[in-house]
Amino acid sequence: MAKKSFMYGALILSAAGIVSKILGALFRIPLGNLIGAEGMGYYQAVYPVYTLLLTVSIAGFPVAVSRMVSERVAFKDYYGAHRVFHVSVAVMTVLGAALFVILYAGADDIVGYVATLGEAVYAMKAIAPALFFVTVMSAYMGYFQGMRNMKPSAAVQVVEQLFRVIVGLLLAFLFVGAGREYAAAGAMFGATAGAAAGFILILFIYFAAVRQEAFKARIAESRRAFRGKRQPVSHILRLLFTISVPITIGSAIMPIMSNIDLAIVANRLSDTGWGPEEVRAMYGQLTGMASPLINLPQVVTQAIAISLVPTVTAAFQKKDMPFLRHNTVLSVRATVLLGLPCSFGLMTLSEPIMRLLYPAQPQDAVAAAPSLFILASGIVFFMSIQTLTGVLQGVERQVTPVLNLFAGAVCKAVVTYVLTGMPAVNIKGAALGTVCAYVVATVLNLRAVRKRTGTVFDWKKTVLRPLLSAFVMSGVAFAVFHLLRTVAGNAPSTLGAIVAGGIAYVVMIFVTHSVTEEELALFPKGETLVKMYRKVLTTVLKNGRM
């Protein structure tokens, strides 16, 4: 069962992440129609500040709690794990309260300095309480993740988003008559309502768990067994901050670089003769139309990384290196298997997909397609960064991925500066710079993982076979799209090509043995997947002989 925990947890979190993304998309569309561009301006003006403070509060702490809890659980020190949890709750309560006060009390000054939209102050005050709930809640989620129980995190994620959508849209509807700024604040309060709902749910799950007699007995037994070996609170605090601070800094690197990137791109494009309107249009095509599609697959790899940290940590602490390497190989292979079809699919159908998503802006959609093509080539690297970072965090190398990502960010700045200054390349230079950052960080992370864990990858199984499957998938998708386009429009042709390509990829990973029966058996309903695997192989081989 231990070897199944990583895959089960990743699948549970992936499913929750996908549902949350869908709910988020369902929220934005009616909200935009309800409060209009002006209201969305107030709404969006608040998010950069809120996101920055949220990154400071929760980027590193859940990982730190998860790792420290997992280290103790590996040796059945459940009481020690519970002490880590209690200390982390106290820290996160103080931090969450402080951030809430900063954002709420300083809303007028922050809005005036950052957003220059005075009326956005209502939206900022409306979302400020969410900082407290989300920050404290992250300690509970880190505790359950350290116990290798991903269900509470998944449930909270969905409930939080569900309440955000319902309450946010309802309040926006009720307040829109009073003014767009109040409607935006109502929509923003949806995030606070969602955070409060998630907080209440995680408290309910936690207290339900600690009331169980088995839980009480386990804590009492470990308290007796480890008596005299207790670490002082000061030591626990030092470990929490030692682990979390580098992760927090790493999480802030790319957002900071994105802001620097804006200045570089705008200035370089202007220097080569592009006018202000053209610069804004090109940057919008890159960041507003193409980039969001690249971020979607990270839902899965975030789930893999979160589920991987406690599994790798436990194996590392127990010096069970074969199991650690097994999970490392499995996680990288899963990342490549999921990342390659995303990369090749978006590259093959970059223009049709853009036209499908933005039918009302056909010229911008076509113009954004080359940037999407370039960014898509980096998806598998972007996803690999997250997975390999999870491994490094689990083996006490949390600083390493930060330094590697910084090296990638520097590469991004240099490449972007040089290429966007070339008129023929223009905004595509920024996309190429981003891909270079991903490649550099991935290569450095991979080298660090191999050095630290001694993991040896079978590149034929890990890369070459999935790569062949992705090429076949692309060929099928390309052929189906052009075949259907002769009798149908862009939308049905694109959707048909996506479905056909997806089927072709699944068949090919079975045919090429990119996935083994043993690995399929690790998934939920593994026996059913193994039967399907054998059926596909039998059918293909039978048709091949015919």
How is this fold's topology laid out?
Layout: H1 2-58, H2 61-73, H3 78-105, H4 107-115, H5 121-146, H6 151-175, H7 180-210, H8 213-225, H9 233-271, H10 276-295, H11 298-317, H12 321-348, H13 350-357, H14 362-376, H15 379-394, H16 399-420, H17 428-453, H18 459-485, H19 490-511, H20 517-520, H21 526-545
Helix pairs in contact: 1-5, 1-6, 1-7, 1-9, 1-11, 2-3, 2-5, 2-9, 2-11, 3-5, 3-8, 3-9, 4-5, 5-7, 6-7, 9-10, 9-16, 10-14, 11-12, 11-15, 12-14, 12-15, 12-18, 13-14, 14-17, 15-17, 16-17, 18-19
In total, how many beta strands?
A: 0
Would you tell me the structural class of the helices and strands? mainly alpha
Number of helices: 21
Strand count, sense and closure of the main sheet?
none
Helix fraction, binned, reads over 70%
Work out the strand percent.
under 5%
N to C succession of SSEs:
HHHHHHHHHHHHHHHHHHHHH
Note the overall shape: globular
Q: What is the residue-mean pLDDT, rounded to a whole number? A: 84
What does this structure look like?
There is one protein chain. The protein has about 550 residues and is mainly alpha-helical. It has three domains: about 1-230, no CATH class; about 245-455, no CATH class; about 460-545, no CATH class. The chain contains 21 helices and no strands. It has helices at about 1-60, 60-75, 80-105, 105-115, 120-145, 150-175, 180-210, 215-225, 235-270, 275-295, 300-315, 320-350, 350-355, 360-375, 380-395, 400-420, 430-455, 460-485, 490-510, 515-520, 525-545. The relative contact order is 0.09. Mean pLDDT is about 85; it is low at about 1-5.
